[in-house]
Amino acid sequence: MTLIAGLVAVVTLYLLLQTFRAANPAVVARGLKIGGGIVALAVAVFVGIRGELAVAIPLGVFGAGLLGWSPFGPAGFSARTRRSAGRKSQVRSQFLDMVLDHDTGTLRGEIIAGEHRGRSLDDFALEQLVRLGATFDPESRALLESYLDRRFPSWREDTQSDRTGWDSGEINRPTTGKMTEEEAYQILGLQPGATAGEVSRAHRSLMKKLHPDQGGSTYLAARVNEAKDTLLRRHRT
Prior knowledge:
Shape: flat
CATH class of the largest domain: Mainly Alpha
Strand content: 5-15%
Order of helices and strands: HHHHEEEHHHHHH
Helix content: 55-70%
């Protein structure tokens, strides 16, 4: 019975984490993940003191995993996480400069053209951002959608009647020129001269963060795929 209770607790924690992450920005989800890890470790210690090691050990490993601790030493998950510490991806359009923090999954945006040039998207309320989006080009609107998906998960339903022209279809097919290697490095958060292996690892890491459960974006995912293809073609030539 104790074993079953422990398994139920683990599954419940995991499902709660996934649900919360799907409905909230990644930074908040990360806080819940840390809290869940602490609770799981506390329960593991309590159960272990009672001698139920069959429950305490897997629960402790689960809690350690939530906190980002690896039981596999320097070559394990922790080492891979440290290698990407501080890395950021940058995507620019006519009106916006967007930066994705690899560690937290936070997406920040700055307006780089127009009357609000130099201001952060964080300075604006949802209604103001929707009105701004109506003045942007399709590529900038696609970037703005990516930002809104993370900051206001239900923004589409909340502003359905206010997005005149947003649903014309062109926003989902922004036109851009051929991506340069410099842009590709910025999007993947890599330094010029990165190896093919580093390009592939950065691509995999970013695609996980751009999953819909993380507030991801089809447009950003397409840009990341394009960046990978651009740099890998250089390695093949």
